[in-house]
Design goal:
about 90 residues, mainly alpha, two-stranded parallel ribbon, RuvA_2-like
């Protein structure tokens, strides 16, 4: 984590490990591991996806603590693994 993100206390949704993701209110160890697995398989998560996973909308205060910057390594990994369904039969 960069010193800028660390000083702001941001949780980087598309970069951080399960232990850090658990700082999000209502997110325990099992769901944190599921989120890491999901982003490795499907790519970057966005706000809507996170809210569906935690089954509630996030407050403005919570949103101020989250960073949804895309992880370029996730996009590359999901494309390389063939998870893109844009093929023609």
């Amino acid at each position: 984590m960069s010193s800028r993100n660390m000083s702001l206390g941001l949780v980087r949704v598309n970069f951080d490990p399960p232990q850090t993701l658990m700082l999000i209110s209502g997110l325990g160890p099992k769901l944190a591991r599921i989120i890491v697995h999901l982003r490795q398989e499907s790519g970057n998560l966005d706000l809507d996806t996170l809210e569906v996973l935690i089954r509630r909308p996030l407050s403005v205060r919570e949103l101020d603590q989250l960073d949804f910057t895309e992880n370029p390594m996730l996009a590359t990994a999901s494309q390389a693994s063939g998870t893109d369904d844009d093929y023609i039969d």
